[in-house]
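> call design_seq(struct)
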């Protein structure tokens, strides 16, 4: 019995029409990235597991897709380790590689490996798939594309301003409705951790707060209680979550934290620049509860949210991501567009343009070998003019060929039989209008000048 074909959960096939839409998203993003001076690179789908582990926190590490070593991958594992059935311990012996979790850590690895060939500050963009062993749900996939732009080797806050404007330019052109760019600074969160006397639990704090939209205040406090936070600490955090303070209020709350005040100062500078420049359609909102769970962020953090949809973009500054690979002091900042979620929103809001220019515009009917030889020069002359054209490959019934043309949305169907060949003409049917004319080959080609 034949096996029923299937694909892994959280992955998808893409039809021709879906690819047109996806490529449109990628083309808009690429165009804007280039406009701001970014250059494209690519990195392998798989990285050494040691490159990825420890860069995303415990939760991120659990979501990395590990790749079994080829051959007898249990050969180097002793019986004691096998009997312990400790998957984390076993992984070190049977998996040396993994599918990349994001594009930022591979980029940091790339910078270190190619540092002698790079001119800093280096502005790169990358559009490639990433993989996460997450639970599939609406808007969340196990394989999805990220479209990243990063600037590394510069501390200037003007880079943050550029990245906010890139969000604005791209999402305006893609006609994303009612979106807000949320912005915060990890220094502010670090300052709050100092004030709450939880500096030693900063990661637990930010990971929990990052889930606020999903689990609410009670869910955040419950998770923190499970992590060992005291009643006093929980009371202070609960008060903070209910306040939703602005930058002015934060200055008072963070008056004893130099780190926290530095974060407020940086945010004010970025937001003042953006106010001077103006935004096309984005709303910029300071969100003190925005944490982003990734451990490597150290400064500004961004997230773009659309009403009734998951967040579609994110990013932030990382002061020393390359340090883990042996190169210290290279500050960077970057953003990522979630192309798959953007696609879902554009489809739901009917924001995609008409892609008729990508369709076959002219199709030649196949009446046999002689007729094919007669049509081929015209077919290739059209293609030289940049016209999408094809000849039906088989000499089958006319009804089948016309059905094919109709389903593909072909505008002109060209027929050349015995009479046309004798008169050096073509019979051209306009499928959109229902009209039909017999004209010379030259007249037909002039229609596309």
């Amino acid at each position: 019995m034949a096996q029923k074909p299937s694909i892994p959960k959280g992955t998808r096939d893409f039809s021709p029409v879906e690819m047109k839409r996806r490529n449109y998203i990628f083309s808009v993003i690429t165009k804007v990235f280039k406009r701001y001076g970014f250059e494209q690179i690519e990195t392998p789908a798989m990285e050494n597991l040691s490159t990825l582990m420890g860069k995303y926190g415990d939760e991120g590490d659990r979501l990395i897709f590990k790749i079994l070593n080829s051959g007898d991958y249990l050969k180097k594992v002793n019986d004691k380790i096998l009997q312990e059935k400790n998957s984390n311990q076993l992984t070190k012996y049977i998996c040396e590689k993994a599918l990349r979790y994001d594009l930022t850590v591979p980029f940091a690895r790339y910078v270190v490996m190619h540092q002698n060939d790079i001119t800093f500050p280096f502005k790169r963009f990358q559009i490639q798939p990433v993989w996460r062993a997450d639970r599939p749900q609406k808007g969340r996939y196990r394989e999805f594309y990220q479209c990243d732009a990063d600037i590394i080797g510069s501390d200037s806050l003007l880079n943050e301003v550029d990245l906010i404007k890139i969000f604005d330019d791209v999402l305006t052109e893609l006609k994303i409705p009612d979106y807000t760019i949320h912005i915060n600074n990890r220094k502010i969160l670090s300052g709050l951790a100092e004030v709450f006397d939880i500096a030693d639990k900063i990661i637990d704090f930010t990971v929990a707060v990052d889930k606020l939209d999903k689990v609410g205040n009670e869910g955040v406090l419950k998770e923190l209680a499970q992590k060992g936070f005291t009643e006093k600490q929980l009371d202070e955090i609960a008060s903070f979550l209910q306040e939703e303070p602005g930058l002015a209020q934060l200055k008072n709350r963070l008056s004893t934290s130099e780190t926290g005040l530095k974060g407020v100062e940086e945010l004010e500078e970025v937001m003042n620049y953006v106010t001077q420049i103006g935004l096309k359609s984005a709303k910029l909102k300071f969100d003190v509860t925005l944490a982003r769970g990734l451990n490597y962020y150290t400064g500004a953090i961004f997230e773009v949210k659309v009403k009734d949809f998951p967040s579609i973009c994110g990013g932030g500054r990382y002061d020393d991501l390359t340090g883990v690979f042996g190169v210290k002091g290279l500050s960077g900042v970057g953003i990522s567009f979630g192309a798959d979620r953007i696609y879902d929103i554009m489809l739901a809001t009917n924001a995609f343009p008409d892609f008729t220019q990508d369709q076959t515009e002219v199709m030649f009917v196949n009446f046999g070998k002689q007729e094919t030889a007669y049509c081929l020069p015209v077919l290739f002359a059209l293609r030289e003019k940049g016209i999408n054209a094809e000849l039906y490959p088989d000499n089958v019934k006319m009804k089948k060929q016309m059905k094919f043309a109709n389903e593909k949305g072909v505008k002109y169907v060209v027929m050349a039989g015995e009479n046309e060949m004798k008169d050096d003409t073509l019979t051209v049917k306009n499928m959109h209008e229902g009209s039909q004319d017999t004209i010379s080959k030259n007249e037909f080609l002039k229609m596309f000048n």
